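Reopening: structure tokens for the EPZ complex, inputs below.
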Amino acid sequence: MDVFEIEGPVRLEGTIEVGGSKNAALPIMAATILAPGKSVIEQVPCLADIAVLGQLLTSLGADVERVNGDLHIDTSLIDNPVGEYDIVRKMRASICILGPLLARCGRARVSMPGGCAIGDRPVDIHLRGLRELGAKIHLEGGYIVAAAPSGGLVGKQIFLGGPFGSTVLGTANILMAATLAKGMTVIESAACEPEVADLANCLNTMGAKISGIGSPRLTVNGVSRLKPVRHKVIGDRIEAGTFMVAAAITGGKLHLKNCQPDNMVAVIDRLENIGVTVGLGDNDCTVSMDSPIRPADITTQPYPGFPTDLQAQFMAMLALADGNSVITEKIFPDRFMHVAELNRMAANIRKEGPNAIVAGVDTLIAAPIMASDLRASAALVLAGIAARGKTVVNRVYHIDRGYEKIEEKLNAVGAKITRKNV
Ligand code: EPZ
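Re-run output (same inputs, fresh job):
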């Protein structure tokens, strides 16, 4: 198992190229199921989660090949519409094959995703939406068993909101299924995340007829077939946000290439509130910090609100603020596994229900710590860079799920991170 040994504190300065978005690439890979033939998806990060979805597509009958930064996915043959438990259990996002399989094959059997470190993550809204399109769905032996009507799925007006607002992968699933449904589907309370917009744009290039992209109302006029596509996924706004915090927490200056600041308005707003200077370009930005970290209140919300996937990283930064901050988690109220680990580094954070009260301290002190999930582990790496002494982050495989070569990217701008196999 790999660990990171991190020597701190350091000041980061230089340029980092942000990779393609994991959370855009995953549903787009699933979307290739809808169009028999060979699609090319460009700028797909080389990550454990991407490999899992590649394995899943292969198990369905597709041919998946990585050619440098691109994925070539040939879905001419999809003869086994079954998402096996042994693959699905490795990654919850595997659920995004359900909608495309149902639309293409008229039936699907996909293992029900299980528990997750960041909280309960039901898929009831995905199933509700597919049922609205006419699918018959039941659970059997831990599998979701779904069948479309004999004439295929039928478009409808669907409300897709849930107790925590919209659902990203739920919207992706229904959107993909609706592209081949008969007639018009209107998805109300659709997720507006840039990753959903990227999927919708990709589907339109495949021949789908989707309007309202980026808004909470998506209208889909069903078509009879889609064609294979060449599509470049957007830059990863969560990776970019993580590096923005890296600049800020080390009092450094980073130029981030291949990030779309337009997709990060809430994040940039909070950074500026904290005292960070952000210089904006169309496809890049510069982030610098030369004052003490000011406290700030943060509430996670669906896009365009502040993303839950950056909550842990901002908490690591606010642990060093000059005062008290309150972080409220409105998407995954239990997503606070990093609190105890940050406190082991002498942070002063108290969890109260869906809130974390972060009392700023002068110094974080290195300690052996345990990564619990992807974004929590990114927060621990950031804390390690800023902390005094040698931090050892265990269970680095969590970070490898979503950050490509994070230690190489950070070391190139001044971090001292060593990957060790223990
Ligand atoms: C996506 O997960 C992301 N994953 C997550 O990123 C991200 O944290 C999350 O969206 C929120 O932004 C991918 O895109 C692969 P949701 P998703 O459905 O789609 C509740 C990361 O670190 N809900 O938008 O699974 C749910 O419990 C990952 O990269 C239901 O109640 O999240 C949550 O409270 C982690 N019923 C809220 O909705 C449902 O059927 C939003 O979840 C579906 C969701």
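The first helix runs from residue 22 to 31. The pocket of EPZ is lined by residues 23, 26, 93, 120-126, 162-164, 167-170, 195, 307-309, 331-332, 374-375, 402 (CB under 6 Å). Marking as resolved unless the reporter disagrees.
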